[in-house]
Amino acid sequence: xxxxxxxxxxxxxxxxxxxxxxxxxxxxxxxxxxxxxxxxxxxxxxxxxxxxxxxxxxxxxxxxxxxxxxxxxxxxxxxxxxxxxxxxxxxxxxxxxxxxxxxxxxxxxxxxxxxxxxxxxxxxxxxxxxxxxxxxxxxxxxxxxxxxxxxxxxxxxxxxxxxxxxxxxxxxxxxxxxxxxxxxxxxxxxxxxxxxxxxxxxxxxxxxxxxxxxxxxxxxxxxxxxxxxxxxxxxxxxxxxxxxxxxxxxxxxxxxxxxxxxxxxxxxxxxxxxxxxxxxxxxxxxxxxxxxxxxxxxxxxxxxxxxxxxxxxxxxxxxxxxxxxxxxxxxxxxxxxxxxxxxxxxxxxxxxxxxxxxxxxxxxxxxxxxxxxxxxxxxxxxxxxxxxxxxxxxxxxxxxxxxxxxxxxxxxxxxxxxxxxxxxxxxxxxxxxxxxxxxxxxxxxxxxxxxxxxxxxxxxxxxxxxxxxxxxxxxxxxxxxxxxxxxxxxxxxxxxxxxxxxxxxxxxxxxxxxxxxxxxxxxxxxxxxxxxxxxxxxxxxxxxxxxxxxxxxxxxxxxxxxxxxxxxxxxxxxxxxxxxxxxxxxxxxxxxxxxxxxxxxxxxxxxxxxxxxxxxxxxxxxxxxxxxxxxxxxxxxxxxxxxxxxxxxxxxxxxxxxxxxxxxxxxxxxxxxxxxxxxxxxxxxxxxxxxxxxxxxxxxxxxxxxxxxxxxxxxxxxxxxxxxxxxxxxxxxxxxxxxxxxxxxxxxxxxxxxxxxxxxxxxxxxxxxxxxxxxxxxxxxxxxxxxxxxxxxxxxxxxxxxxxxxxxxxxxxxxxxxxxxxxxxxxxxxxxxxxxxxxxxxxxxxxxxxxxxxxxxxxxxxxxxxxxxxxxxxxxxxxxxxxxxxxxxxxxxxxxxxxxxxxxxxxxxxxxxxxxxxxxxxxxxxxxxxxxxxxxxxxxxxxxxxxxxxxxxxxxxxxxxxxxxxxxxxxxxxxxxxxxxxxxx
Amino acid sequence: xxxxxxxxxxxxxxxxxxxxxxxxxxxxxxxxxxxxxxxxxxxxxxxxxxxxxxxxxxxxxxxxxxxxxxxxxxxxxxxxxxxxxxxxxxxxxx
Lengths: 985, 94
Ligand SMILES: [Zn+2]
Hints:
The structure holds 2 protein chains of 2 kinds. Chain A is α+β, with helices and mostly antiparallel strands.
């Protein structure tokens, strides 16, 4: 195979040969190559198939703007799709393949799409499948759903592996005075100037080497620059992309740590996601060369002029033998000269007629000529050219490469992230960055400066601007004027060719043609934002870095307006794609969120607990004996509690210490029920409302002393209640003398429940007298000792409806407490019970939890009207009966039984009237359980009008998700022991 | 990303804080009418520019703060404790 690599060119290391695989064949490249340069050197022209038409595509560029050479790197679980071959560094053993083609990019069966083009024109999907008239609205949806998977397969890019990502990623943070994005002449000048003025500087470069576009120069050597930067203490971050700018000078960076290494150290993350907080940002992100739209401008062999200069001088690859350069500006002539010096036969077509350029006459210049059609399909055979833009076929040039330069677009993307709109510059035919009040300064060619000295001057001016804005200097400075070419650019975006089936591409990656833009205009999509969405122009992962301006110019022409009147779309982060892995960093798997465990977590597991997540907490779910299922287990546990005794870890409840001389007044204001008369040594169940009268949380407060309370909250609302109490004390009731302290972590809690619970505790406390019915009546509280001199707090509180106690010890004593209680529980044939049994017991009793108190329920809805004091005002009292909250048909808490007691139902079932099963029905079931006591399934939930309205009516439970339906009847939510006699035993 | 200069902890990232709400509301007394409470909790201005809002240093010192922040640029002009006594302490320590 002939190679395109030529001697004496490039900065690659020819002593280090690298092997790689492309589409299952072996090739060789050199250290310093990108995948793209290695493919070009191996004379591989077709590297992909296009998005919709499956046209053969080659390599268009040498950088991040690449819209043709999107390939898949790696295999199996390390398969990384849509990687730009132009920025992928070559390493030994790299495996890559082309995308969107079957069986391969050279012979693609779906290439027939090219001839079915009209089906794939802009808006085709919408019109056909979304049911745009004449089809009825919505009627197309079913057709779409049927065809979707075929179409997605036919039109698309690479696919992900679908396997868990084996690599690790990392999040990192840093601070600096100045961050400079881009290491071209402007960025380097800015960084040096700033470091010399004693600023702490970070210099970021997306390439593996510093230098920016100077890397395309044949005599450029960056080692001296690098030394200088390092000696000044500048932190240089290569292979790092500034992908987004955010508020307050925050820059998001993606550092590709090991993407260029064949066998990376497994202890090093693949990529690092940086959040940099700077005081000032200087952006020298460069400019991107545009192509020109004309027929078949996507045939492999088409490339930007600057890219071919890169391949020649950086990689030693001569990309063509007979090269035609088509341009409208001065920037191509140095490249033309170098390409011909390197041995290519070069012709320059310049659309301008009146201009002067100095050359050594080693190549031909055709003034006033433009290209209008490429002949060839998988490679370029020849180019049709014409004088002026009105096509009269005049000439055909045999060639194997067409290089395009339709002008340069400053990379204003990062500034656009900050909402700064660029302004159109007629002289240079490009958008230039506007000024911003934020500490961001644009330098170099990203502010439209085309020659190196101007770029350097702008870098120094940029740093002076930064110093002034930071208040460190008051120095006058000026930026060079945009431009810098000897002859003005002549706008040239499209060369029209009126042959049918002509395809002039505007956006290569999404296969958007000039005809698509015209079609969108005809159909009324004239706003640039609508144009973008209808044609998908600029919506591929290159965000239209090359093609957007061409699309805008076409729309401007159609509307008879100027480009700035048509506007520009807003660029959003990321500048180049960021992997999901880098975004999630280490927050994956079990590190996805924090894990909270109770101090007896291991004890629970050692005693057979199966755990369940409740918020962040791990709580015992059930304690199966041999072969028991979840339902076997919780039914046994719940029955044991009703029969004898059970113990359950309730540590996850929120616990707050409330102290101070106004504590009683404070509680009286935040709870809906009265607390002013609660005696020392007693606890009370309380409900808190929000300002708007809806229930916030429920819990208990124990009066330990005159001015000291111990409050418990629900597990899920603990943090919210704590913040709420602090807010009230720090913002509204600043005169109250109250301190609140979260003591959730300090206390371990256990519920001991069941008719034998007092006997169990008798054996566990130092002095059994303290827990007699007289000394510790229902809702009584005592501070005493467990055996072994362990201080504890005991309250006679019941959530199960049985005689029950909550026992709290300091967390350090949790295991000792569990051992002691469990040893004595076993003596009464008691059990350990988990959350599932706890749920069963509370549903039987009609106690509400988070499933019922979902932020929409009032105290009356929950059937707790008695808990709303009429003798005082409290948070929510003014609003709890406002407007709709006092309607008669509100959904009220009820219990549910299946009419046929053998039937089951699920939470989420919609309750409906018979013969009227539709919509949201008249209610819903929120919690269900099998009731061991009643011997059938029961539920809690809400129904409009409550028990009184429906108690004798047969209702229907509709469960369309599970395709179930059953007859129901409404009962009192207090399904067992409605008078609550057992708790008082 | 917002940085808030907590008077107790110093400048910290906004991820340490929780947003509260409008700091300018004078909440009515608990026995005030439904109408007064409705005004206080449902009717809000939609300010373009600087507004006073409460933030809770929930992953820090737990202080509730009044932050003067621009809704357009996120620029923060001032930060002080909500509690008047704490405000005095901060003032005296300046
Ligand atoms: Zn703080």
